[in-house]
Amino acid sequence: MENFNFNVSTDIRFGKDRLDELPSVLNQFGKNVLLVYGGGSIKRSGLYEKIKTLLKENGLKMFELGGVDPNPKIESVREGVMLCKYHKIDVILAVGGGSVIDCSKVISGAVFYEGDPWEMVLSRRYEGPTIPLVTILTLATTGTEMNRGAVISDLNAKQKLGIHGTNFLPKVSFLDPSLTFSVSKYQTLAGSADILSHLMEQYFNLTPGTEVQDSIAEGLMKTVIQCMPVALHEPTHYDARANLMWASTLALNGLVGSGRKGAWSCHAMEHELSAFYDITHGIGLAILTPRWLDYILNEQTLPKIERFARNVWQIQEPDSMKAAKMGIQALYDFFEENGVPMTLPEVGIPDDRDFAAMAQQAIDHSSLLTDAFEVLGVKDVVAIYQACLTKSKFI
Amino acid sequence: MENFNFNVSTDIRFGKDRLDELPSVLNQFGKNVLLVYGGGSIKRSGLYEKIKTLLKENGLKMFELGGVDPNPKIESVREGVMLCKYHKIDVILAVGGGSVIDCSKVISGAVFYEGDPWEMVLSRRYEGPTIPLVTILTLATTGTEMNRGAVISDLNAKQKLGIHGTNFLPKVSFLDPSLTFSVSKYQTLAGSADILSHLMEQYFNLTPGTEVQDSIAEGLMKTVIQCMPVALHEPTHYDARANLMWASTLALNGLVGSGRKGAWSCHAMEHELSAFYDITHGIGLAILTPRWLDYILNEQTLPKIERFARNVWQIQEPDSMKAAKMGIQALYDFFEENGVPMTLPEVGIPDDRDFAAMAQQAIDHSSLLTDAFEVLGVKDVVAIYQACLTKSKFI
């Protein structure tokens, strides 16, 4: 195990019927609140009106930045920065999924950044001050509600980049599982695939002696595998939604990733799919991951992939290589049986015309070439993309 | 899953060779440091001299409270409070295991408490201010380095009581696994048994829908079961010590306990063994737990005990009741094979003369009678104590 810091001070308010706590939470930071949200589902659900009324009744002034897209765009950040400066915003209230919260994080720092926000994103780290951020999560996916990362896209430049900020960590996050009852099947699938991918990206790693982290990762993977089908079948199943939500948060708050290092492989490859074609992030990950595992399966990676097969998928097959392949197949089948479109053409990437350019960017924007679980070059990434064009069978 | 708050802001500095960070950590709180430690092992190991030199070189003034006992006594708290007031202490530096840290927590609050510190402990909660606390952990056991609880004994009153304080949470905790290389076999056993017990106390619970918490608990239990024998056999095995240490911290920082409620059964019963006979806490827990599980095994408790047998001990036996019993036996055998004295006479409790009084106190000081995994009365507790007088066989 490597040395690490773990310092995750977000005040989590987990559970239903806790909105009454919001005014006092916001009040500790000031009176001027910037509400950031997405496509308007919070208006349809009535959450927007509830928040507006609550804030008004408690003497808080609410300003708004709506319309933040999935794969949030740098244009939204620029708009948010202007609003923060003009209205002297004291606290940002992000209500939504990962996109809304990520956009809010970058706004919170960019307000104090001298150059254009995209320059800040290009630098990949921000150590300066931020406007305090409070979140109300409406989608179990990215874990951004309890970490220091954010992902922002510039579609003009065909770039989707992660940035970390010491002070991007939300001060308070409200996690109400019942707010995810209305999440569509497709978004539940995509969100769950994203959680699983976060866990696998950290789990498939070469640092030895990370038993705590690995066993937590396996436990959270099993939780998602158990609860996702329940939530798909019965969208208002509170405990299924609650476990998916809490798993999503814990999957990426440092618990699983601390004490080891190494590149994330599928995210590096998927970010280019989203940057070029604006596809749903989690679905892209579900498509890529089994093909990636199959492509990198070799003597060095076998022990961990076999362990994954046995501990997560309860594969009993005695032969190690065969067991590993059965684990990869089980992952693929899990996604397919639950309705994930498992080829690129199904999500609007018709052929391989952009694979070389995307692979090059995947390499340029990551350390796939140097410190991945299994290092990958452009040729390898193209081969993995290629395997995603048609249905796969691994055994 | 029940609603919960999770807000654990302790800044964890995990790993070896990080003592150089100590002066700047302390400096943010002030110049006057009260060093709290135990029986002098930190003097023998050289850690005491290193800290003294570091603090002096960095202009910090060090005062001392040494000799804090295992099962820390209220007398040490009173002494610490006097020292804090007299020397205008700005920050407490606790260097040791759970006893030293727990004692320091209670001191940190009792300084601001108007009455005698034991009155504060008797009230079981402290919501007032505290002196900031920094810890250097030298024993993987209680998890106190990242939570808000403390346990203090008054041997005159034969009482050992837990107290929670909102501000008892350490500000910074240094977790250096190599500081546990010198921990004796017996203390490694006791510490590991304590970690396992914390996990089991939270895991054996009736709240439904806590898949995240249960799967994390199972993962941490498996980690301890895997790493404890390695650390016993090779005390300087870094990764074994690192995983035991990180597991001990995560076992009791809210990850496993959040979202459910209910009494801790074995701790309630063990606290009286320690209060009456001053035995080692973890060993008392190891002795009690299998007998408790066997005593409460019934139709209602079967599903969880069976799950424990299958997921933690890989029991394949198809019959549920038999599998559950095999799990209890596996737990007992694990302790016994690794050298835990598994009967009360072996640890200096010769017979049942105090069982009735201890059982009565266990009931008085807990909610065993109302909200345990399986509710227990005085008669039940006596029966469980009784089963601990001789070796056991569960199948």
Description:
2 copies of one chain form a homodimer. Chain A has 395 residues and is α/β, with parallel strands linked by helices. The first copy, chain A, has helices at residues 22-27, 41-44, 47-57, 74-87, 98-110, 117-122, 185-203, 211-233, 238-250, 265-277, 281-296, 302-313, 320-337, 355-364, 368-371, 378-387; strands at residues 4-6, 11-14, 32-36, 61-65, 91-96, 125-126, 133-137, 149-154, 159-165, 172-175. The model of chain A has no long low-confidence stretch (mean pLDDT 96). At the A-B interface, strand 1, strand 2, helix 8 and helix 9 of A face strand 1, strand 2, helix 8 and helix 9 of B. Chains A, B: Residues 10-177 form the Alcohol dehydrogenase iron-type/glycerol dehydrogenase GldA domain.
Radius of gyration of chain A: 21 Å
User: Domains counted in the coordinates of chain A: how many?
Assistant: 2
**Number of distinct beta strands of chain A:** 10
Broad shape of chain A: globular
Helix content of chain A: 40-55%
